[in-house]
């Protein structure tokens, strides 16, 4: 099983009504839930760990996840309200306003002994759950338990408008990166975390501390990756008609983990030994899946029948 741990919420994505005025449309989202949905739709056995409300929006989230074949038995249901995120597209980038006080995702606690890490080939985590102290502490405990048997996959998916203490947040992200076998981040995340430091310099430092694979997605400029053994690989982004980029990075991560899983290269030692051609193929597949997501509004990762693949 592939496991994704973190946020589940409702995005209110921009649209226009019949009169042409700006409006918003509710869509199930949350970076880590999106990753789970993306992996499951492609055909991987997938479970989600996190807090989901029993309110109206929480039922939308649960129904959407179940319809995408995500196992929700590992999630925690509560009567806390659902996190809401309002999205506005500015210069091609998604900007978010979050309403996240006293929510099911914010109040999630890790229930030790309930997650079958022995059967979990990989555990993905990141995003808004790591901003607040409780979510970060609970995730840290989960990752510590998972490390013995599962490949640890990390996407910081930074949300600067939620961060109150940037130095503390940067230190927290560095600590999580130290525990990760695979780190994926967008160019926007990289700039927030590392400023103008050259990509290759930071990737070298991350590989030097034990990470096997570092990937940076760059929107229409494609993705570039560094592997401790295979070296550097770059793949282009497909040319598509973009509806919005919401969930594109999550779809990339989901497809990358799925591709590595199908290649038999996701387990920790197998990831360390991956060849450059296998890595390029996995990255290209991930870029194509992200491209499909960009063609439709909201976080809507592709299903296996929508992807041209010989997996």
Automatic annotation (TrEMBL):
InterPro entries: Carboh/pur_kinase_PfkB_CS, PfkB_Carbo_kinase, PfkB_dom, Ribokinase-like
Keywords assigned by UniProt, alphabetized: ATP-binding, Kinase, Nucleotide-binding, Transferase
Pfam families: PfkB
Molecular functions per Gene Ontology: ATP binding; kinase activity
Gene3D superfamilies: 3.40.1190.20
Signal sequence bounds: none
Domain Carbohydrate kinase PfkB stretches: 6-303
Signal is among the record's keywords: no
Family the entry assigns: Belongs to the carbohydrate kinase PfkB family.
Protein name: Carbohydrate kinase
Organism encoding this protein: Bradyrhizobium betae
């Amino acid at each position: 099983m592939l496991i994704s741990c973190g946020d589940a919420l409702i995005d209110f994505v921009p649209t226009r009504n019949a009169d042409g005025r700006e409006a918003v449309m509710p869509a199930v989202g949350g970076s880590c839930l999106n990753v789970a949905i993306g992996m499951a739709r492609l055909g991987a056995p997938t479970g989600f760990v996190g807090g989901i409300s029993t309110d109206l929006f929480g039922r939308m989230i649960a129904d959407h996840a179940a319809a995408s074949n995500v196992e929700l038995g590992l999630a925690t249901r509560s009567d806390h309200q659902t996190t809401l995120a309002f999205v506005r597209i500015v210069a091609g980038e998604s900007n978010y306003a979050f309403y996240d006080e006293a929510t099911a995702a914010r109040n999630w606690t890790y229930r030790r002994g309930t997650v079958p890490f022995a059967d979990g080939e990989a555990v993905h985590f990141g995003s808004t759950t790591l901003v607040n102290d409780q979510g970060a502490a609970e995730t840290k405990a989960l990752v510590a338990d998972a490390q013995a048997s599962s490949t640890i996959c990390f996407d910081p998916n930074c949300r600067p408008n939620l961060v109150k203490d940037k130095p503390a947040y940067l230190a927290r992200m560095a600590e999580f990166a130290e525990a990760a076998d695979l780190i994926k981040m967008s160019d926007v995340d990289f700039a927030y975390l590392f400023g103008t430091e050259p990509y290759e310099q930071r990737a070298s430092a991350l590989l030097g501390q034990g990470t096997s694979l570092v990937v940076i997605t760059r929107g229409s400029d494609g993705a570039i990756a560094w592997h401790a053994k295979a070296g550097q690989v770059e793949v282009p982004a497909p040319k598509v008609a973009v509806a919005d980029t919401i969930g594109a990075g999550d779809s990339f991560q989901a497809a990358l983990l799925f591709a590595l899983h199908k290649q038999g290269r996701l387990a920790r030692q197998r990831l360390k030994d991956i060849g450059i051609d296998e890595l390029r193929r996995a990255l290209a597949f991930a870029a194509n899946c992200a491209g499909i997501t960009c063609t439709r509004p909201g976080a809507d990762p592709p299903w296996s029948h929508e992807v041209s693949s010989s997996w």
